[in-house]
Amino acid sequence: MNALISAKNISVIKSGKNILNDVSIDINKNDFITIIGPNGAGKSMLLKCLMGFYKPNIGAIKTKPNLKFGYMPQNLDVIKTIPMKAKLFITIKKKFDKISLKKVISETQIENILDKQLSFLSGGEMQRVLLARSLLNNPELLILDEPAQNLDVSGQTLFYKLLQKIYSKRGLSILMVSHDLHLVMVSTKQVICLSNHICCCGKPQQITNDPKFLSMFGKDMAEVMAVYQHSNKENFENN
Amino acid sequence: MALISGLVGCFVVWRRLSYYGESIAHSSLLGAGIGILIGIGINFGVVFICLLFGILFLWLQQSKALSSDTLLGVLAHFALAVGIIVISFNKIKIDLHAFLFGDILTVSITDIWGMYIGVLIAITLILSNWSSLLLVTLDEDLAKSEGINPLYVNILLTTIMTIVVALSLQIIGLLLITAMLIIPAATARRLVNSPEGMVIVATLIGIFSVVFGIYLSVEMDLPSGPSIVVVSSILFFVSHMFGLIAKNE
Ligand SMILES: Nc1ncnc2c1ncn2[C@@H]1O[C@H](COP(=O)(O)OP(=O)(O)OP(=O)(O)O)[C@@H](O)[C@H]1O
Ligand SMILES: [Mg+2]
After folding, report:
1. Domain extent for B50
2. ipTM score assigned to the predicted complex
């Protein structure tokens, strides 16, 4: 088996509701897959099934034995009641060595906030800390659930650039849920539109012309993205 | 006893379980009644019913149909009401006063050995699962991604809390048990910047409160539970006052 994770025709039914319906997805080495879809589409649920948190009611998920993955949850309400420095948080229950810790810290640029209390971190700092945590065990696959949702536009751009850098340097696979398709257009290799079932999928350039995508997100959105695609490319090439 | 209350108290504060602690304490009255009724004694009755209560709560909570505090409110007061009925109609002799407010004089040598063993087990369980407990406290999904089953960890914590509540019941009494758990931890919160530090400081505060509170209660013939809680509350206010002053400077 070559795929890191391979899900075949999975359906998830919770309290009588069909949350995922006949979804198939393969995640291979060096993939960069972005999942988009409206709120409540089952995006987070799909990620959780792929990681084995839930068993699908129908269908099967095959995972490469001993797959190392890193996970960044959609939202972490930092509890103010617990005193904890970022540095400790990154390492709890993680297998790692000093070298990879150092590497991760410099990669995610969190040197200056390691000694800060979790409850004092800003949104962007927290996202970088979470990213660092998910990278600490040298994962083959990163699973990110709306990693930039609390950031402003420039914060989002910075975060996705960071992600792109990590992706190309480490050669790992990324599976990400994101609404900021216009920002990840350049990095991502494959886009999946999910709304309980897979509506359409393909390369980012193709998908913006797909009639199903247009009917789901509207023509305006597609045009906005086409524009972004150009300007982003220029940005990336200039850097 | 004080050793463990600081440790468990931290988790109660972190996970906002104080209402849960309160509820276990409520259900302990039913435990005492049933313990006497079927002849297994108060202590076993309390541990048994409290554990049952904890498991029932975890199980019902899984369905997520009601919010936890509503669920606890229903369960706890149901248990309390049934407890009072059981005690009353069987003419069971329970020193209700000692039960509510705690009476250190009712503690026997066997009770003390029971406490030692209970505390030792609870501390061992917590320390050997320390990082799992911390991670589940922070985020259950993150914990799952490291291969931890949050349900097991929650069962573990519930069991330990139950044991601690059941054990401290005789000294502190039903009404003030949560106070003994959370006040040392809340006092420590301001003084530390790591979870381990919080546990250590909370434990020290807990020990001091218990020792000094019991000393006061013996010297001045006061009830033991309230004395302990008053001592720890004073520490809480003092530390917060110093905290405020330090901030303003
Ligand atoms: N454990 C669960 N039990 C029952 N229903 C659930 C469970 N988890 C999620 N759901 C439901 O499944 C649906 C999809 O949830 P999910 O969190 O996967 O959506 P999403 O696509 O990630 O949405 P968002 O963009 O808002 O994050 C929602 O209607 C949610 O209420
Ligand atoms: Mg989601």
Report:
1. 2-179
2. 0.86
